[in-house]
Amino acid sequence: MELLLEYLSLGEDQDIEFKSADGGLPNTLWETVSAFANTDGGYIVLGVSEIKGGLVISGVRNPDSLLKNFWNNHNNSQKLSTPICFNSDVEVLKVEAHNLVSIKVPRATRIQRPVYINNNPMTGTFKRNFEGDYRCISEEVRQMLRDANDEPQDIQILQGFNLSDLDSEALKSFRQKFSSREPDHPWLALDDQNLLIQLGGWRRDRNTNKDGLTIAGLLMFGRERSILDALPHYQLDYQERLSKDPEIRWTYRLTLDGKWEPNLFNFYYRVYSRLVNDISVPFQLDRDAVRRGETHVHEALREALVNTLIHAEHQSTCPIVITKFTDSFLFSNPGRLRISIQQLYDGGISDPRNPNLQKMFQMLGLGEKAGSGFQKILRAWIEQQWFPLVSEKLDLEMTSVALPMVSLIPENIEKELRDIVGDNYCELKELDRTVLVLAHQFGEICNADIQVYTQEHPRDIGECLKRHVKNGWLEQSGRGRGTHYALPNQSQSDLLSLLPSEHYEPSSEHYEPSSEHYESSSEHYERLRKIAAPIRDKGRTDKELVEQVILELCSEHYLQLRTLAELLGREPDSIRNHYVNPMLSKALLELKHPEQINHPQQAYKTVLARNQAINKASDASPSPQSP
Description:
By secondary structure, the chain is of the alpha+beta class. The protein has 5 domains: 2-148, Methyltransferase, Cobalt-precorrin-4 Transmethylase, Domain 2; 163-230, no CATH class; 236-404, 2-Layer Sandwich (Heat Shock Protein 90); 411-488, Arc Repressor Mutant, subunit A, CATH 1.10.10; 494-620, Orthogonal Bundle (Arc Repressor Mutant, subunit A), CATH 1.10.10.10. Residues 491-521 and 620-627 have low confidence and may be disordered. Helix 19 (521-536) runs antiparallel to helix 20 and helix 21 (561-568) crosses helix 22 (572-585). The strands form 7 sheets. The protein has a 6-stranded mixed beta sheet with strand order 12-11-13-14-16-15, covered by helices on one side.
C-alpha cells in the first residue's frame, strides 16, 4: 500500500499503469497486459484518474463485476493469446473510501511470448517503454515466435544451398584443430558432407525426405555472399577502442568488408587472439588457442566470445558487436536471455538457441554445455576483484555482457569514495560498500544490478539505496524499476562546460571561436530548449524527427544523456535505448570517451560529416522549431 501511494505521487512508469475504469474495464487494458507480459512485467491499477496532469483516486464502482469481466476476457483465447495472470496476481485494495483493483502482470516466458490480443500476433503484440505501450513491428513479433519454438533455430534446412556455399579453407582448418584435440575420433575419417551431418551442419528432414545445408553449417563455415543471401541482416563487428583521442572512434575494426570470409569459425579465431594479446596475466598459448597454460581470465574471455556467437539470434536485424576498451570488454548479441539472469548467475541450466553451433565449438574444446560457461566468467572476474554485469535491452531484444578490468576497490577509487562519504566510510557495511563500488564502476546502477553481487533481499538493497540518496552519497533518477543511481560527481551537468573558463577546451580541431561559444550557460540552455521544444511538448513523436533534433542539439558540444533527456522531456533510458544507441551504431553520433563506454562523464556529439550536412540543410530549409 505504501508503495502504491508513492507511485501515485510519482506517476506512471515503465512497470506501473493507472487507469480510471469509471465506465468498466478499459479497452486499452489488454494492450497494457500484452506490453507488460512481453517486456518485464508490471502492475495495472484500476480506479485512478488523471486530472489536470495529476493522479487522483476515483475508485471502481463494482469491483466484483469488473473482476468477472477481466477473468472472462483473460481466459478467452480470442481476446488474450495465453493466460498470463494467476488468481493471486489480482486483488481488490481499499484506499480511504475507495476500492482499487491491482493486477500484477508477470513477465512471460520465452515459450509464452508473444502475448498478443484479438487473435492476431502481427497487430496485437505490444511492448512497454517509458512512454507507454507500443505496437511491435513484424520483425519483433517474428523474433519472439522463433524463440518460442522448441525447435533449434540453427536446424533449418536452406533450400538451394550446397557445399559450394562453404569456405573450404575454414572447413579444412576445423578438421586440423579437431584432429589436434581428438586425433583418433572416428568422424575425422568422414568426407565433408558426412562430417557436417554429424555436426548438425547438414540434415535430412525425415518428414519430407529432403536434405541440405543447415543454418548452423552456413554460419559456421559459409562464404560471405552465401551467408548474406540466407540471412540478409547478418553482421559481425569487432572493435578495439584503445585511443584516448575522442576523434578516433576505433583503433582496429573487423567486420564484413569483402576481405575475408566472415563465418563464425574464422571470426572466433581472428577475434580471440586480439582479445587476449595484451592481457597482463602470464600464460602460454598453444597453436590452436585452446586450454593449454591459460589463466582463468583468458578462459573467461573465450567463454564470453563463444557464448556471444552461439546464443545470438542470427536472424535478427541487430548485429553482434564485441568491443575491446583499454580497461574493459563488452559483448553484445541479438536475442534476449532464454533463462533468467538469476539462473544464469546460479549456473547449471542451459537453454541454447543454436545447439548445433554449440556442438561444433565444443568439438574444438570451446564452450560449455552444462550451463557452467558463465560460472567460469564469474569465477575469473571475482578472482581479480572485478565486476561482470549482464543486462538485457528489452526494447532492442539484445543481451550484453560487460567485463570491466578494474579492481574491486583500487586505491584511487577508495579515495574518491572516502571523499564522498567522509568520516563514515570506515563504518560502512559490506552492502553499503558494494553499492558504492558498483555505482563507481558502471556509472549508473539499479536495484537489479546489485542483486547478482549480494545475497541481500531486494528490499534491503532498496533501503540501502534510499539511505545513500538521503546522505547525499548517491543521486537518483527515474522511477519504479526504471530508477537508477549514480555518484554525485558522475551526474554533474555537462552544460557547465559551456561557461567561459581557462580550463575550457574545444571539442574538435575544427573549433573556431565565436561569440556564441561564450554565451552564459542559461542562454545556451534556453536555445537548446527551443530546439527541443517540438519533441518535449508532444507525446509520441516520429522517430526521424527526434533523431534530427538530437543531431542539432549535439551539433556544437558534447551533451550527456541526462541533459538530452531533460531537454527532450523523456526518460534517460528511453533516449539511450531508442535513439542514442542506434545513432551511435549508424555513426551519426560519437562518444566523448570511446575508450570507456560507461565513463561517468560520457557524452555525445554529432559526427563532423553529419554536422556539416545539417548546416547545409538548415541553410536551404527551415529548422524543426521554425514556424
